[in-house]
Amino acid sequence: MGVASIFLKPRRLEKGESLRGFSCGVPLIDTWARERAASAVKHGTAVPYVSFTIEGEVAGFYTLSAYSIDRDSVTGGWLHRNTLDRIPAILIGMLGVSQQFQGKGLGWKLLHDAITRARGISQQLGSRAIIVEPYDDSARSFYMHFGFNPIPGSNSMYWRLA
């Protein structure tokens, strides 16, 4: 079976739903999913988008949030040029694939969905870039593979929207 037939298109996590049983093997992401996802939905601090299997299991998720970067913290380059004191952006705060579904292309599908949604948002609300803060070298390589660039002077990376 192909990836498209196993995993459903990501949708918003709704109030009353949770990611309590989610485990991708990265403690930071697993803890956030179990302990903070429902609160983020309730308080509007992040919007989790979840991909389920056709059987209804959580296969993976990502989050989007409004974000900004202090212009003075970026040491040159496209991201720094012709901007305000705070550079408007969209943050992919979390992205994880359940351990049992890793290696099946879902990470890329989630990232593609996040980029597509961020592009749509940026047409309605000014956003210069998508920002990620990779938790380790493996995550950094994943984002670099899909065109994200390092932000000079930080551990963050960006993907150009504007």
Keywords:
7 strands; globular; 5 helices; 162 residues; 7-stranded mixed sheet; alpha+beta
Written description of the protein model:
It is a single chain. This protein has 5 helices and 7 strands. The chain has helices spanning about 5, 25-35, 35-45, 105-125, 135-145; strands spanning about 10, 45-50, 60-70, 85-95, 130, 150, 155-160. About 35% of the residues are buried.
In short:
This protein is an alpha+beta fold. It contains five helices and seven strands; from the N terminus they run αβααβββαβαββ. It is 30% helix and 27% strand.
Name the helix and strand elements from N-terminus to C-terminus, one letter apiece: HEHHEEEHEHEE
Distance between the amino and carboxyl termini: 37 Å
Number of E-state strands: 7
Residue share in β-strands: 25-35%
Secondary structural class: alpha+beta
* Low-confidence sequence ranges: none
Shape: globular
Main pleated sheet: 7 strands, mixed
Helix content: 25-40%
Radius of gyration: 16 Å
Query: Strand order, biggest sheet?
Result: 1-2-3-4-5-7-6
What's the number of helices?
5
Question: What integer is the average pLDDT?
Answer: 89
Q: What is the fold's blueprint, element by element?
A:
Blueprint: H1 3-6, E1 11-12, H2 27-35, H3 37-43, E2 47-52, E3 58-70, E4 86-97, H4 106-124, E5 129-132, H5 137-145, E6 149-150, E7 157-160
Parallel strand pairs: 4-5
Antiparallel strand pairs: 1-2, 2-3, 3-4, 5-7, 6-7
